Amino acid sequence: MPVSFNDAAVSNDLGSGIEMLNAGNQVAAINSGQVQVLDVTFDEVRVTGAVVPYSYTQTPNVPVTVHPGGIAVFRPLQGGGVSLMIPQSSRLIQFT
Question: Would you say residue 51 has pLDDT above 90?
Fold first, then answer.
């Protein structure tokens, strides 16, 4: 199930770049330390900056929407992977 950002502010706190993909096609990218307002839907993330990029899918696979004016933060997930924190709803989405 996809994650949708509807004109939401998205921050990348991973320490590496991140790409958002939908059906294998890149729909957005954010460099480390950047914040962008995005209007995209995606089902996979790829961490860039390493020799070999790492791709992760959402677990559990549930639909997530961040509405206009919302905030989302990509962070490293302890043990590997990527977390997506959505503070206004107290949700933590994992990509492993």
Answer: no
pLDDT per residue as tens digits for the range 11-44: 999 999 999 999 999 999 999 999 999 999 999 9
CA dihedral of 77, 96, 39, 63, whole degrees rounded to 10: -110
Q: What three-state secondary structure class fits 88?
A: helix
Q: Which two tokens stand for residue 31?
A: 């460099």
Q: Are 43 and 84 in contact (CB under 8 A)?
A: no
Is there a contact between 2 and 42 (Cβ–Cβ < 8 Å)?
A: yes
SS3 59: strand
- How many CA atoms, within 13 angstroms, populate the side-chain half-sphere of residue 12? 21
Q: How far is CA 72 from the centre of its chain?
A: 8
Neighbours of 74 (CB within 10 A): 23
| pLDDT computed for residue 73 by the predictor | 97
